[in-house]
Amino acid sequence: PVGAQGDLASRTLVLESKRFYLDVKENQRGRFIKIAEISADGRKNQILMTFSTAALFSQNLIQFIDFYRDLDSLDPENLRQGELKSEVMYKDDKKYHMDLKENARGRFLKVSETFTRGYSRFQVFIPADGMGEFQHNLGELIDEYDNGDAEEALSAPQNKHLRIENKNFYFDIKRNQQGRYMSISEVKGNFRNSILVPESGWESFRDVLDDYVKQVKEGD
Fold it and tell me: What is the pLDDT of residue 118?
């Protein structure tokens, strides 16, 4: 069913005792997917993903499903602490964590959306047995409504993150009318500063860094 203007599609999934809604929406910045989780007691959690992020998420989900199928049965008397498997995705000023975990009730995938400046954390919890059905429906929505963003994201270089001392640096490959470029962002607390390097200058940019590293090493 299609709701208000801007809603392109919606699917409902029932996984164990939870209801999930996958909504394809569109605004001035483009198309995105809203994932909402409604617990049996009525609590609601939701996260938002651009189509490019959703495509990477769907691709990672396939790997998580394969990993989960190879796991031994859950042993409530010997639960594993921490994550069974983890993955992190970076997109512009957001960071997404995928963490497969277990507790006495079973195994589940925690998906968290966090702004890289450290505020606002949103998360949903997908039962591990439902990951296959979830990925199937998400993949179908991406295939049907992608306008090129998802396909480009899967073929483009993946975003990178570096932590140097107390600063975070994010490297994102983007494209505009002038062509492809690299956005390098420095983030510390609420401070964010970015520079844009056109693809034609990447090798020169690297050469300057290499030269500085070489000079410093020789000087030491």
Answer: 59
